[in-house]
Fold:
Amino acid sequence: MHKAFILAGVCFVSAMFVGCESGSDPYSFLRRPLQRRSVAVSDSYRVMSFNLRTATFIDAQNHWNLRKKLVVKSINTFSPDLLGTQECQASQARYLKEQLPGYQFVGVGRNNGKADGEMCGVFFRNDRFIKLDEGHFWLSKTPNKPGSKSWGSAFKRMVTWVRLAPRDGSKRAFYFFNTHMDNSSQMARVQGAWLLRRKIDEIADGRPVIVTGDFNTDSGTTPYQLLVRGPQDWRGYLIDTYRQTNPVPGLNEGTRHKFHGKTTGDRIDWIITTNNFTTVSAEIDRTKYNGQYPSDHFPVTAVLRLQPGSQFAGHRSTRAGGS
Structure:
């Protein structure tokens, strides 16, 4: 037992200096000036989806306390206008709010709708948007009941959403949804996808929508097909921004790497939108810093442009999801 604790301690310390020369500051890069990418601010929205990995002692050298600065570095480097997070505990949310003063945060714990449990917390830039409305619902048969779960879900799962309007008045308001679907039950993911579509129709009512999330499934599954159709059917369904800009599936699109950096596997983290948006670019961010990854998931990013017009060009979902 003592040996296990000693080994964990060694791993914690060594992680602070992986990839650094003797005597160097492992976090000196955090103090370098950040450069925002050269896409016109008024013409686009920069969106990031980031599963933070919850703070748990079992991660040893990859514990949140040893990589939280890297998470902030990743966020600041991309400089999103909209950030959807998953596995965000209250303590992690507090830290990020302190480190990201230019953003407003909306999120509640999945266990009770307050601060208990992981959040699907969203951040948006204060200087770009005014929040018009916000809400939360649970992926269950009783979506308005905090802490509810159904369909064999291993954990309580939820969605957080906000309605935002650009401060400069240049574009119309839109909705931003963020979710984390179950990792265990395929039925929970299928029913969750149906529920998410119905709620988007109900809440957004044809207005522009951006959805971020860890869906715990890839493009070859029913939940994906319920939310996203192929290019010939994009009108009426949600658009997979990554596939729109990377139309040929590859072998290295995995987004969960368990801190090993592997690129194979399933692409389970998505940014999807209604067809009011044009995707300028979409990427999987595989950056590591001094040999360490910010999370066990690669963050995914997209740059989007909102098209002229006011309504979603597709049809509304009508099929119910099961009782």
